[in-house]
Amino acid sequence: MSPILILASVFAIFIPALMLPGPDFIAVVRSSMTRGTAAGLMTTLGVTLGLGMYASLSLLGLSAVLAEYQWLAWGVRVLGGCYLIYLGIRLFLASRGKPQEIVIQESAEAGRLRGNPLLFGFLVTLTNPKAIVLFASVFAPAVSAGTPLWFMGLMVALVMASSLLWYTIVSLFMSSGPVMRRFRNAQHWIERLAGVCFVAIGGRILADARNPVTP
Fold first, then answer.
1. Any stretches that span the bilayer, and where are they (predicted)?
2. What is the signed CA dihedral for 115, 118, 123, 124, rounded to 10 degrees?
3. I need a surface site. Which of 15, 71, 182, 201 has the fewest CB within 10 A?
């Protein structure tokens, strides 16, 4: 199969999967709507770095390792699901209080959660086992021992470029003036909704943890 056909077949699956709402999407929206454009873009960069790392690992044989050692795949999913649940609970608890108090003065807990949006985005992606499964099932089968290094590098670069473009659009829209004015007094509800979503996604990941990873 020609390189162009390989890229077309892989990214025909990856792009729609990227655009579906998930932990990365929620992280970018939450940072953009509660902290503004700069934080949203930094979260976008963190997500992009995480996806680039997973794409690189999958092309270098991560899927084969997870398929061979299913206990490792199970452990990654359990840890990732637990982290998302933990993060969701912290976000929900940090948003408690009167709306005006949260908007004017953040609690110490919220401040810690919001300290580094780049790290926040990176960790959310890093602890999302669904990203591992996506790259293991879509990207790894597209390469072989004879695939040139430049082609694998191109695939990783396209993954990162796609992520950066999509989540930048999401961040700029969600932190735009009209959106921010509309939801100016709802930041605590945004935090709570993000927390609930993270808990729900983490719970689903734990429920699916026993499903095997195939190379």
1. 6-29, 41-65, 71-93, 118-143, 149-169
2. 100
3. 71
d(CA 208, CA 48): 25
- Side-chain-side CA neighbours of 69 within 13 Å: the count stands at 6
- For the chain, give every domain's residue range: 23-207
Angstrom distance (rounded) from CA 55 to CA 74: 19
21-73 pLDDT, tens per residue? Answer: 888 998 999 899 888 899 999 999 999 999 998 888 888 776 666 666 667 76
Residue 109 or residue 95, greater confidence: 95
Angle between helices 149-174 and 23-35 (to 10 degrees): 40
C-alpha triplet 8, 28, 139: angle, nearest 5°: 25
213: which 2 tokens?
């990873």
Average confidence score pLDDT of the chain: 79
> What are the pLDDT digits (tens) for 143-160?
777 788 898 899 999 999
**94 near 1, Cβ under 8 Å?**
no
Helix (H, G, I), strand (E, B) or coil at 88: helix
Report which DSSP code applies to 60. Answer: T
- Give CA–CA dist 20/52, Å, rounded: 18
